[in-house]
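User:
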Amino acid sequence: MGLDFIITKDLKPRQGFEERVFTFTDDEEGYYWFLYPLFKELKERTGLSIDLYEDACFQSESFIHLKTLIEKAREMVSVQPDNWDVCTGEQTFPEEKKLYAKLNKKRFNEILDKLDSMIRIAEEEKEQILVCGD
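Assistant: Predicted structure:
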């Protein structure tokens, strides 16, 4: 799993700008799945997907929807304990069972802060946010 958020003008990532890129890594897939209902809601409202297998380009008019998503995510995270589990899928072989990932509230808030910061940068610099799935 990999999902990249990139601030860009020309739909190409710039090198050397750490504040302009965020990646959900394999170790952070639980955070993605916790946010998945909000990503589905976002797609219904805007037609834009934050998806593991699709790309989307968010421009200034769609940033308000990303901000709303982050606000809702903060509310969802705020009522969670410091650490909690989220279902990330199901294993079917050799036995059927649900798979879980452990989430950490502090790390989750760091992720949301990073995404919020990226939106501010993109707004100030009149750029786009490209979301790239695998």
